[in-house]
């Protein structure tokens, strides 16, 4: 059943990543999550220590084994993914930690080998807006001229008081500066937001979406806050200092956020991953298809579409 949404060939009322890739490349494309062994500015002490309070030691819990070479990781995960999709194209995804937090010549050594792999159609690089030195931006510009590049910026929140509480160690102003430096070079940006961060209200989470939507990013990822074992946030949660969203709350927030984003912005993700062995709460998040189905059902029930409340004039 088609939804009537401009960028959909099924029942979705938002611009899905799968739709975007199918239409761009004419084939299934799957990301191959890699760990290049980078660290982060708020782990190694240059900005802070300990990492973000929700982080279990560096984003990318589902990425490859850093003890193996990048090509080894790529081919291992590629073969595993082919258990689901027999024929597909590939996008290496440098996911773990901050993947531009090194000189450009180091990045070349990490990125170039997988770009030469057969049927690779692009590259996705996850990083922070405060880890974009001039030589790195020059290299990213070069990459952008010869492949489909997406630079993923972990913003998480536009509120600096929340950022301080979660030990983010950069500001919204830092993000806006990094975003500008990428987009003025015509580099595609995917912005990450997390719903349910400590102290954030419904109104704040909608404001996060509106502020990011006004920037007209190429893509966004909307995540759910997970409480993971061996994190600083686990301690706060165990002491009752923070709580997580329930399913109905999360679905309502996401649907209202989707309405804020222009229909051209691709929605790469609407929930997050928490490993069964490490996840403490919310346990309902393990049922990802239930979450996505509830989002579809609510958007249909209230006749919502991505972009039907888009406001380019929203201030940043």
Question: How are the SSEs ordered, and which strands pair?
Answer:
Elements: H1 17-25, E1 29-34, H2 70-81, E2 89-94, H3 104-115, E3 122-127, H4 134-144, E4 148-156, H5 160-165, H6 172-183, E5 188-195, H7 202-214, E6 219-224, E7 227-228, H8 232-238, H9 247-258, E8 266-269, E9 279-281, H10 288-301
Parallel strand pairs: 1-2, 2-3, 3-4, 4-5, 5-6, 6-8
Antiparallel strand pairs: 7-9
Helix pairs in contact: 7-9, 9-10
Beta-strand percentage? 15-25%
Q: Which structural class fits the helix and strand makeup?
A: alpha/beta
**Low confidence ranges:** none
Output the number of helix runs.
10
Mean pLDDT: 92
Describe the fold and architecture.
This protein is an alpha/beta fold. Helices cover 34% and strands 16% of the residues. The protein has 10 helices and 9 strands. The chain has helices at residues 17-25, 70-81, 104-115, 134-144, 160-165, 172-183, 202-214, 232-238, 247-258, 288-301; strands spanning 29-34, 89-94, 122-127, 148-156, 188-195, 219-224, 227-228, 266-269, 279-281. The strands form 2 sheets. The chain has a 7-stranded parallel sheet, sandwiched between helices. Helix 7 packs parallel to helix 9 and helix 9 crosses helix 10 (288-301). The longest helix has 14 residues, at 288-301. It is globular, with a radius of gyration of 19 Å. The model has no long low-confidence stretch (mean pLDDT 92).
